[in-house]
Amino acid sequence: MKKSEVLIGLLAVLSLNACHLHWGLHKHKQAISEEEMDPPREEYVHVVPNWVKQQIEILKTAPPYRTGKKMILEYRYQYNYVYYIPADCCDQLNPLYDEFGKKICAPDGGFTGKGDGRCPDFDRASQSPTIIWMEESPAK
């Protein structure tokens, strides 16, 4: 195999990884479309935990986010409900909590944008994104 073929292959792999990383970094911060959200099911009513309701009240009184959006998202991950709460801004880890309020990991954010590395499969394994609460900050 020629050096040029190896370099072209390496560049292709790096390009694909960069695209995946870019998508992963922005997936959680974009508004979720109606099609991605689970339709309500009459046979089962899921109740938002009290600690999440308390976190909403804390976020309501916090200063506006520099990114423009304060939000809490609920996902299904590893057969459980989990809650993703993006950080205020840049280079901060974005924590993911279990239904009891215990921090599981940070799937993204931080200096590398890859989170803390404890749940590297979150982007592809998480399901049923639902906006639990979101507040738009006033435009600057």
List keywords for this structure.
five-stranded antiparallel sheet, 3 helices, 140 residues, 26% strand, 5 strands, alpha+beta
Q: What is the fold's blueprint, element by element?
A:
Elements: H1 3-27, H2 50-61, E1 69-77, E2 80-84, E3 93-98, E4 103-109, H3 122-125, E5 127-136
Antiparallel strand pairs: 1-2, 1-5, 2-3, 3-4
Radius of gyration from CA coordinates: 18 Å
Total count of helical runs of at least 4 residues: 3
- Which structural class matches the secondary elements? alpha+beta
SSE run: HHEEEEHE
Average the pLDDT over all residues and give the rounded result: 78
Q: Main sheet, how many strands, which sense, barrel?
A: 5 strands, antiparallel
Domain module count: 1
The percent of residues in helical segments reads 25-40%
Percent range for β-strand residues: 25-35%
Count of DSSP strands:
5
Intertermini distance = 55 Å
Query: Tell me, what's the shape?
Result: globular
Weakly predicted, low-confidence segments:
9-26
